[in-house]
Write a structure and sequence with these properties.
Number of helices: 9
Strand content: 15-25%
Bound molecules: 3-hydroxy-5-(hydroxymethyl)-2-methylisonicotinaldehyde
Mean pLDDT: 96
Strand order of the largest sheet: 3-2-1-4-5-8-9-10-11
Structural class: alpha/beta
Distance between the termini: 17 Å
Length: 283
C-alpha cells in the first residue's frame, strides 16, 4: 500500500487539516501517516481557540522514523504553525524525499484577500521559499498573491490568472494549480500550469454560493490521494474538484449545516466509487 505523510495541525474540533486528511486519504486506499505541527482546540475561525505548538517534536519524531527505515510515496504539507516549521518541513523533504517521492504543498495561510490569524508577509515569503522544493503546489488566489507580491483582485480575467501562474511557477514547483478560480458567471474551479510540458489545464464546476471552512483541505487531500493512487493530473484534480463541489452541495442540504466545516463524511462513498471508476479507466 502506498504511504502519504501529511504535515499539518490537529484542530480537535472543526473538520480541517488532519481531521480531514486522515479519513479522506485513508478512504482512498492510501496509508496516511501524520506529523502534527500543533494541537488547537478548534481551527482559527473560532474565537478563543487554544494552541499547543509542537515544533520541538517534529525532528525527534522524524529522526525515529529515519532509524526505523520508514519511507513515503508522497509528502503533503498543509497548515504549518510557525516560520521554524517551514524550515523543518524543508529538511524533512530533503531527508525523506527521493526522485519517486511526490512533494505536494498546500501553502495554507490566507483566504478572501486576508491572512489567517498569526501569519504575516514574512510567513508568506518563507512559504514561497518552501514551494521551490515542490512537485505540485495548490494555493488559492489570496495565497498566490501573498507569495508573489501580486495585488489581490476579487474580479479578474484569464490574463491575471496566467500572470499569477507564471509568477508561481517562477517559485520553482513543477506544477502550479490555483484553486477557487472563477472565469465565468456561476462557475468556479482550478486553473493549473504544468511547467514540464508547458501546458495549462482548467476545470470548472457550477459555483455554489456558499463558503465553508476546510474545503481547501478536502480538495488537497483528494488530489494527493488520487495522484498517489496513479491517476494523471487532470483526472486527479477533476475528481477532487467534483468531490469538493458535491460535498458543499450536500452540506447545504443539511438542515443543521455546520458553519465550521463540510459534511465530507456523507460523501466519502461517492469519492471511493469515483476513484474506483477512474482507476478502472487506466488499468
Ligand atoms: O483549513 C485550513 C486551516 C487549517 N488549520 C487551521 C486553520 C485553518 C484555516 O483557518 O485555522 C488551524
Amino acid at each position: 500500500m502506498k504511504k502519504i505523510l501529511t504535515i499539518q495541525d490537529i484542530s480537535c474540533f472543526g473538520k480541517c487539516s488532519i481531521t480531514v486528511a486522515l479519513p479522506v486519504i485513508s478512504a482512498m486506499g492510501v496509508e496516511t501517516v501524520i506529523l502534527p505541527t500543533a494541537v488547537l482546540s478548534t481551527h482559527t475561525m473560532f474565537k478563543n481557540f487554544t494552541v499547543k505548538d509542537l515544533t520541538d517534536q517534529l525532528i525527534p519524531i522524524t529522526d525515529h522514523w529515519k532509524k526505523e527505515g520508514i519511507t513515503f510515496d508522497a509528502i503533503y504539507t498543509g497548515y504549518l504553525g510557525s516560520e521554524e516549521e517551514i524550515e523543518i518541513a524543508k529538511k524533512i523533504f530533503d531527508e525523506f524525499g527521493s526522485e519517486d517521492t511526490l512533494i505536494f504543498i498546500d501553502p495554507v495561510m490566507a483566504d478572501n484577500g486576508k491572512m489567517y490569524p498569526a501569519f504575516d508577509q514574512n510567513y508568506a515569503k518563507l512559504n514561497a521559499g518552501l514551494c521551490e522544493k515542490a512537485d505540485i503546489i495548490v494555493p488559492n488566489i489570496t495565497e498566490a498573491c501573498f507569495m508573489t507580491d501580486t495585488e489581490y483582485k476579487e474580479t479578474y480575467d484569464e490574463e491575471y490568472i496566467k500572470t499569477l501562474l507564471g509568477r508561481l511557477a517562477a517559485l520553482g514547483s513543477k506544477i502550479v494549480v490555483l484553486t477557487g478560480v472563477s472565469l465565468s458567471e456561476g462557475k468556479t474551479g482550478v486553473y493549473g500550469y504544468d511547467t514540464v510540458n508547458d501546458k495549462y489545464f482548467i476545470y470548472q464546476n457550477d459555483r455554489v454560493d456558499a463558503s465553508f471552512h476546510g474545503t481547501g483541505d478536502v480538495f488537497s487531500s483528494v488530489s494527493v490521494g488520487a495522484i498517489t493512487r496513479g491517476l494523471d493530473m487532470d483526472s486527479a484534480f477533476r475528481l477532487a474538484a467534483d468531490y469538493t463541489a458535491d460535498t458543499i452541495r450536500v452540506t447545504l442540504d443539511n438542515p443543521d449545516k455546520p458553519w465550521y466545516g463540510v459534511d465530507f463524511e456523507t460523501t466519502i462513498p461517492q469519492l471511493v466509487s469515483g476513484l474506483g471508476a477512474a482507476l478502472k479507466n487506466i488499468n
